Amino acid sequence: MKLTGEPSNEQIDDYNDEETPQKRKTIYLIIGVLVFIGAVSFFLLKPSMMPSDYVGTTEEPGIVSKKVF
C-alpha cells in the first residue's frame, strides 16, 4: 500500500547520509544547548535536593552528638 503524497526514502534529503552541513550544525547546536541547560539546572538544583545536616535551632539544638556511656 503506497500512500499518495508521501515522499519515498530517496526523495528525503537525509537518506543515505546526504544531509546538508547546515542541518548537521543545527542538530549539534541543539544537542549542545540541551546538554548545557541540563548541566546548569543540575548544578543549580543539586544543593536544594540535599538535606541539611543540622537539625534544630540555637534555642533547641535537636540532636546532641555527644556519646554518653
TrEMBL record:
Residues 1-20 are annotated as: Disordered. The chain crosses the membrane at residues 26-45. It comes from uncultured Sulfurovum sp. This is Uncharacterized protein. Residues 1-10 have a biased composition (Polar residues). Keywords: Membrane, Transmembrane, Transmembrane helix.
